[in-house]
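From the shared-data thread, chain only:
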Amino acid sequence: HVKLPELIHGYRVLKHIGSGAASEIFCVFDPKTSAVYALKQVLLDEKKDKDDRFLIQAENEVKVSKKLSHPAVRRIHSVEKVRPRGWARNEVIVLMELVDGQSLDQLVGISMQEKLRIFREVADAMAHMNDKGYVHADMKPTNVLITAEGKVKVIDLGQAHPIGKPKERIQGTPGFMAPEQADVEPLNERTDVYNFGATMYWMLTGREVPTSGPGSRGQAEVPPLANRTNPDVPIELAEVVNLCLEPNAHGRWKDMHAVVRQLEKISASEGVKTRTA
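Structure, as tokens:
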């Protein structure tokens, strides 16, 4: 149990939402604006490079968030580095849109029609990010939240990156990372297509896609179609997912808009099947 502080830097704490490795997330009330937010409080490690890395990621989230205006992307309002009086360590305060929901990995049992709806909304949010010049670069089931009302929110823009530029080092999540991320090549819309395909594959089969190590793209293979593992998966959806997961980026869907269109087609036909079944 986390001891609930009354105030954090002027925000009134309403409840504790969750914990991370070095962070706590609270629901807070801003008396100046009467707005309610999620506030992430992070105690920084003494190791300076780790400190700087976290701060850079948090500031990146705010910068990217301010350029986006999609309802399915969580807003990040501000980030501030502070040293409370009498404390030896700094902390970072990140103020975010409050989203009360479960992450997608906790919802594997939902219907195929609901999965398709969520996939389509996530794909549309990622297409919006790409249109604004950024790749998310870390799409995975834990980075999608679904509220009790069914609203979809893409979260964690800390690794978002300008399209057409390489990262300084390998970044991404094994099981979801595109081969070009492992090779530290320039990232583009097709990188997000791969990450998103791996996310859909996990939600449909419970299996991760084997991650290519640096320089091993030539040996990388597309996984078996999802409907072989899960017969409830429509063959059309399994084929769309596998075309996202081509190791060679030029073999994938060209962008997230193309994926959205495919998912809309499948959703429409699945809806007909469901109603007439």
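Helices lie at 48-65, 112-131, 179-182, 189-205, 226-229, 235-244, 256-276.
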